[in-house]
Specification:
The chain has 246 residues and is of the alpha/beta class. It is built from eight helices and eight strands; from the N terminus they run αβαβααβαβαβαββαβ.
Length: 246
């Protein structure tokens, strides 16, 4: 009896750990931003640079950076609120990111944000409610390093877009007038079709953050957006970078 008991006790196969739960859905988030602007932000791209890619989606920005020999050494961390993007096997296999984190940028600490030379918020703020978009912009500028930059892109009108999958955060909730971005006195900017602006901000933009005024008006059409761009005398020729005059 004792031997039989020992065999039963130690002869049992080890219990298998439950399989990890893989979030349902497919990766989302391909930015229309003028991503090439990132190569013009610093005077010397050969230096060691840490980049934070907020709302990285399918990894288009990181792929662009790593494909260029002069920036391939940059270290890129990604944070995204859509968990499926953070478990994308194809993206993970490419090893574009030093680290990938599921969460929201507004949950990051001041110490974490302050370490990055470039923080990228590409085609993200239009997915937020108006007050949250303003709060996040203020927080990022507040915690931006003195010699660091915030690269923001967004449609300069209310670009209609709904969610593709439940919880994918893809729906557009606001539009951002060009006047709102130019009021922050960007270091440089460029505009892509269909009126997608990319703006590089530095710490000085924090003093002007009260003038960042997005709108939830769904009747803010691209035509209205163009009228504001023209009134601001902005250069909106695709592929052209405009720098702030000193």
């Amino acid at each position: 009896m004792f031997r039989q008991f020992i065999r039963q006790l130690f002869g049992r196969p080890a219990a298998r750990a439950p399989a990890p739960q893989v979030p349902a859905g497919v990766p989302e988030g391909s930015s229309l931003a003028p991503k090439w602007v990132v190569f013009n932000i610093l005077d010397d791209n050969a230096q060691d640079v840490e980049v934070l890619d907020i709302g990285f989606g399918t990894g288009g920005l990181a792929s662009l950076i790593k494909d260029r020999p002069e920036t391939a050494h940059w270290q890129i961390d990604g944070i995204d609120g859509w968990e499926v993007n953070c478990n994308n096997p194809e993206l993970i296999a490419q090893k574009l990111y030093r680290s990938i984190r599921h969460g929201l940028a507004q949950e990051m600490s001041a110490e974490e944000l302050g370490r990055y030379r470039i923080i990228c918020l590409l085609d993200v703020i239009e997915h937020l409610e108006r007050d949250m978009a303003r709060k996040l912009s203020r927080m990022l500028l507040t915690n931006l390093g003195e010699k660091s930059f915030l690269f923001v892109s967004t449609p300069l009108w209310f670009f209609p877009q709904d969610s593709h999958q439940r919880g994918d955060l893809e729906a557009h909730l606001i539009g951002v007038p060009a006047s709102s971005m130019m009021a922050l006195c960007p270091v440089m900017y460029a505009v892509n079709d269909p009126l997608i602006g990319g703006f590089v901000l530095d710490k000085s933009s924090l003093e002007l953050i009260e003038f960042f005024q997005p709108t939830s008006d769904r009747n803010f059409t691209v035509d209205k957006g163009f009228r504001i761009v023209q009134a601001m005398n902005m250069n909106y020729q695709p592929g052209v970078l405009t720098r702030r005059s000193v």
